[in-house]
Specification:
The structure is a single chain. By secondary structure, this protein is α+β, with helices and mostly antiparallel strands. The protein has 5 helices and 5 strands. The chain has helices at about 40-55, 75-85, 95-105, 110-115, 140-150, and strands at about 1-10, 10-20, 25, 95, 130. The strands form 2 sheets. A 3-stranded antiparallel sheet has the order 1-2-3, with helices on one face. Strands 4-5 form a two-stranded parallel sheet. A hairpin with a 3-residue loop joins strand 2 (about 10-20) and strand 3 (about 25). It is globular, with a radius of gyration of 16 Å.
Amino acid sequence: MTASRSVDTRIGLLGVEASEDGLRRVRLPGGGEVEPRGEGVAAERVASAAAQLEQYARGERDEFDVSLDWSGVEPVQRRVLETLCEIAPYGTTVTYGELGARAGVDDPRDVGVMMATNPLPLVVPCHRVVASDGLGGYGGGLDLKRRLLELEGVLPQRLDLGDV
């Protein structure tokens, strides 16, 4: 049994999907609206994750308390994503190379591919993985990555200069 719903946040519309085992997928803004469905434990997990994502987007939460459903994630990618959660808490970043070295993956480009296919962005914070010479890429786009890093205090807030 799975459940899903969309949640409108300050960073855009997110899609949230869960099973009875835990959160299975987070869709970033632009990833498509999710039809609300489900009941029971899966629906409870979706509701909890959605509420926590709203709190995060408002700057009121710096870590997530949700069970994760890793089904469909290859073992090496799971190890890299779990390592990311351990070494890059809120307000910090790690390079692709550093993450790879800590997780036993030699090529930073392989780490980049794993971040690009992370099914649980925000909760498993791939936006905190940066290139050694800049921000690197992000599935939700570089503007969203910057906004998330600004929210977490890693980057200074941009000034709104209006129509200048």
